[in-house]
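Moderator note: this is an archived Q&A kept for reference. The question asked for a predicted structure of one protein chain; the sequence and the answer are reproduced below.
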Amino acid sequence: MDCALRKESLTMIIAVDVYYEEDKAKSVGVIFQGWGDSKPLEIITSYTENPLEYETGFFYKRELPCIRELLKPTDINQIHTIVVDGYVYLDNEKKPGLGHYVYTEFSEKIPVIGVAKSSFHDNEAFVKKLYRGKSTKPLFITSAGMELSVAAGHIQSMYGEFRFPHLLKLLDKQTKETRL
């Protein structure tokens, strides 16, 4: 492989999300190269039959297998950072959230950034509130394998003038688009 291509591929970022409907789950990944990109390099999709039921306090048990399935055909060595819809840590005691489990899934070699739209009680120590655009409502950023301030800076620098970055909004739309 050309050295320049290899270097570029190491900078790929993937944002992932999962949508559930009855006995199916649709997982989507938006792959992009730079934090300021306005368009994805690729959008990947996978479907999981009969995902686990939601269990209060153990959301990752339902979501992680779907994300694992989504990333299976991907050369994970080309991914520099994974962005999840949710938290890396759920409270001030560092209770693991989905992002933490994604981080450990890949042997703590790929940094994970959690981007959540709402706050959790007793969760300020490892969260950075991020205001984008003219919004008075923050996004809640958490991270593993990357300094929190760096992670927040990456999300802040993403393309789009609104609270939610353009590619994350695209991810949300793609995830919910077309019924399973």
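Archived answer notes: The helical segments are 3-9, 59-71, 98-105, 148-156, 166-176.
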